[in-house]
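Field reference: "sequence" (input) and "structure" (output). Example, Tripartite tricarboxylate transporter substrate binding protein:
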Amino acid sequence: MNLKRNASFSLRRRILAIAVLALAAQAPWASAQTTDFSASGKPITFVVPFPAGGPLDAAARILAEAVRPTLGNVVVDNRSGAGGNIGMDVVAKAAPDGHTIGMGALSTHAINPWLYPRMPFDPLKDFQPVTLVADLPNVLVLNADFAAQNNIRSVADLIAYLKRHPGKLNFASGGNGSGGHLAAELFKQMAGVFMVHIPYRGAAPAQTALLSGDVQLMFDNLGSAAPRIRDGRIKAIGVTTLRRASAYPDLPTIAESGAAGFKDFDISTWFGIFAPAGTPPAVVDRLNKEFTAALRSPAVRERMQKLAAEPAPTTPAQFADLVRRENRRYESVVKRSGAKLD
């Protein structure tokens, strides 16, 4: 009886050993296959957590087209809502195989965690950063008629006006806790001035209010503000980044305006590609290789710069470090602003 049990146990051990060897033999082949997106026949879904037509959507479509020869079919899927949380939640909960990626941004990974009391995902733990895509400067713009009537040509002029007329000016934003709102709140804190915040349902209606004179100023995305700057309907007096925007090299930064306390003023709307946490390193490296190559190509750079977006390819580790720094930074900015969303 013992002999039978021993023989049966020995047979099971041999079967288990054969299975382990078979899996080990298949592992390199399986790993190689996971990075061969074009051969799999399965498209990559590129989730954009904002509506079609905006700069993030435009950038995603430019990149999807650029990487198709090497990665196969890339389908842009707009899943907007809740400040980008809905779309990025789709990415966070997707299979970590590289076939679902998302265009996360400053709002989804640095602002929203401090703005919303309940988040559907952890912005640091539930994603694997792939590469930063671009930095998009914000710009301080005024209603052109208001600026001309009050002889406001610079940031210093605006601060002087605000100190003479506290609470008289209204500034627009695309909503409570938006990048434009927080840029203005930081400006108020650093300048020691007061303006009234008028939130709108998106940047487009906020810009409409600026054009009509319902509000006097706003911090707008440079890409969306550019057409109205060119036609003279709004006046730009400073970009919010430490570097001047390549599209407007003559426009000074707020930091170099000469206004006291502004030498470190630096705010931009960045966005980049994320995969779900747990995506294998080989897959992340392949995605990084193809998307950063696209971002460095002259054709993509030219198209991105027309959106006033500066391509900024990085390694996954560099992008992860940026996300962590910005997440910590905006905790204090949001809390000081008092902005909250349900």
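The first strand starts at residue 44 and ends at 48.
Confidence is low (pLDDT under 50) at residues 1-5, 16-33.
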